[in-house]
Amino acid sequence: MGRYDKSIAVHEEACRVLSGGVSSNFRYHAMPVPLCYERGEGAYLWDVDGNRYIDYVLGNGPAILGHSPQPVLDAVRASLDIGQAFTAIHPGELALAKRLTELLPCAEQVRFDVTGTQADHIALRLARAHTGRDRVIKFEGQYHGWADNILASVTPPLNEAGPRATPATVPQSRGMPETATGEVIVQPFNDAETLNSTVAREPEAIAAIIMEPIACNTGVIEPADGYLQSVRELCDRHGIVLIFDEVITGFRAAPGGAQQRYGVTPDLGVFAKAAAAGFPISIIAGRRDIMEGMTDGVVHGGTYNGLTSTVAACAATVEELVRGNGALLAETEQRGARLIDGLNALATQHGKPLHAQGIGTIFTTVFTETPPLTDYRDYKSSDEVMRLKFVEELQHRGVRTTARGTWFMSTVLSDEDIARTLEAADGALAAI
């Protein structure tokens, strides 16, 4: 019997009733098919064939406390008996909002939503309303949700992407109107000079600069020294709203997000994923004068915003992550740094162009002859075929990572897990 026979059978059946056999396009890329998992506990997942995996996907980031974390489950269970959807403020929601304004540098006010896509969407709407302008700058290779008006140049083929200094705005989905991304200007990440020149041509037209402060979706590329500060100063000079998309970095790069880690405060911040350890919540946080646009004509709604169970999950998760001045995150970052160093050492040992980079709580593995990665073009020029083969060989050895090469660390990983992961990587590199 094959290692994945039951998952293959489940996938064949699922394709008859689920479009593509999955409920998100970002779940297609698994080998030999999207596997079916039946249980998660701590750092591990088990598929229907009984295979156990050390999980570095973590639902694409949310399960930062591992699977089924007891403090979060206890908080959610306690919330279930009081009801879920009141269509009104409830005490837990108010308490969480107060706590977040204490923890998040940009948060004078917050609003709750359900997904990162929706939170990014309202952040852009708030910025346009606040400035009276329409154009938005985003960065090549960065993802801000799948809404039509911002789904551009996330993974553009290099033959369509245009010059490095003046990237084309490339729509990323069929079915988008031709005009959907007409107000989007794409820029290279980590290039302050080019960004300044672009803004100088039409500063009065630009409402917002939206960015992942760490480019997590393609390469886990940190900002160059002084880069975020230069973007902050540029926005201040021209009255542009600076939005940090911290859907991934929020509560992962530091308890207060990447804005705390790098000491640069945006006007608006968007948080999701790790905020509730796997429960669906997102947070829009920012300056009071911008956030109060929602009481002055900026429409933001959502039946499922601020449900008691998701608020309880978020509150419990946040307290776990900030306890002891962020001790859990600090320990996780140290383990992640050891894993990064170990992977790079194995690459040298095997004579393979594997390169690991990022921060200890989230990093990437790519195959490139010219490390480090500094922008999307560097990532896109790496060897995708070899990366996917490495991911597949790791999976065969019980280590699960994302197809794009991103590794999410959970706080429950042990030193033994790190050692087993490096053993699997050793075998995977030998196999490719």
Defining key terms:
Aspartate Aminotransferase, domain 1; alpha/beta; 4-stranded mixed β-sheet; 432 residues; single chain; 2 domains; 7-stranded mixed β-sheet; Aspartate Aminotransferase, domain 2; 38% helix
Report the CATH architecture of the largest domain. Answer: 3-Layer(aba) Sandwich
Computed structural class: alpha/beta
Number of extended strands: 14
From N to C, what is the helix and strand string? HEEEHHEHEEHEHEHEEHHEEHHEEH
The chain-level mean pLDDT equals 96
Instruction: Supply the number of structural domains.
Output: 2
Largest sheet: 7 strands, mixed
**What low-confidence regions span 5 or more consecutive residues with pLDDT below 50?**
none
Detail the topology: elements first, then pairings:
Elements (H helix, E strand, L loop, with lengths): L4 H13 L19 E5 L2 E4 L4 E4 L14 H11 L10 H13 L5 E5 L2 H16 L3 E5 L44 E4 L4 H10 L4 E6 L15 H12 L2 E6 L10 H6 L5 E4 L10 E5 L1 H4 L16 H43 L3 E6 L2 E6 L8 H5 L3 H13 L2 E2 L5 E3 L6 H17 L1
Parallel strand pairs: 3-13, 5-6, 5-7, 7-8, 8-9
Antiparallel strand pairs: 1-2, 2-3, 4-10, 9-10, 11-12, 12-14
